[in-house]
């Protein structure tokens, strides 16, 4: 049986056999096939970590750990229940998981993202700068270590950093004016222990 060889590379390398070339592809193929096995059914969250370490340990419902949280900061849990949010917003809101609350119609929503105090301080200036570009009005607050709220006619955002953690609140389709969003965001922030 004739042996097939690949043509030599221009660099003067020795010719490789077809079998050797196929063997080089095999590890890549196995990696592609086995890679998703280390993820959950959503395909994005590791379910097993290094030797005996559960990668999901310590996770809560607010999302994955960030580098600052892994470096020793503590991420607080979601500060609200659906009943509290409904009360604070003055309209029925449903818990949609991961500290996301919606009106059930796909219109009004409140999202709260939590992180450690350390992570919040690391991103505060950038968030504040971006808020200045996205919202009609940005107001610095005297609450916690650092805080601000930002609003426009259809949305609002507030950030609170305290010794208990960092909270970013994003509010959408709750009102129709800047002043209304500011009042609502202040009520929400006041309900978070600083």
UniProtKB/TrEMBL annotation:
Segment forming the signal sequence: 1-37
Skewed-composition ranges (Low complexity): 45-60
Keywords of this entry: Signal
Domain of life: Bacteria
Residue ranges, annotated region (Disordered): 45-71
Protein known as: DUF3558 domain-containing protein
């Amino acid at each position: 049986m004739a042996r097939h060889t690949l043509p030599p590379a221009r660099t003067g390398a020795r010719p490789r056999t077809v079998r050797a070339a196929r063997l080089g592809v095999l590890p890549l193929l196995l990696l592609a096939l086995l890679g998703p096995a280390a993820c959950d059914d959503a395909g994005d969250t590791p379910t097993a970590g290094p030797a005996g370490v559960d990668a999901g340990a310590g996770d809560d419902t607010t999302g994955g750990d960030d580098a600052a949280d892994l470096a020793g900061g503590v991420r607080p849990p979601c500060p609200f229940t659906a009943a509290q949010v409904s009360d604070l917003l003055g309209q029925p809101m449903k818990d949609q998981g991961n500290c996301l609350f919606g009106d059930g119609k796909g219109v009004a929503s409140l999202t709260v993202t939590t992180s450690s105090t350390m992570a919040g301080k690391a991103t505060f200036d950038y968030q504040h700068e971006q808020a200045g570009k996205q919202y009609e009005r940005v107001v610095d607050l005297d609450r916690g270590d650092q805080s601000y709220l930002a609003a426009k006619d259809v949305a609002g955002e507030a950030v609170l950093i305290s010794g208990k953690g960092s909270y970013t609140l994003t509010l959408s389709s709750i009102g129709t004016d800047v002043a209304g969003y500011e009042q609502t965001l202040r009520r929400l922030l006041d309900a978070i222990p600083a």
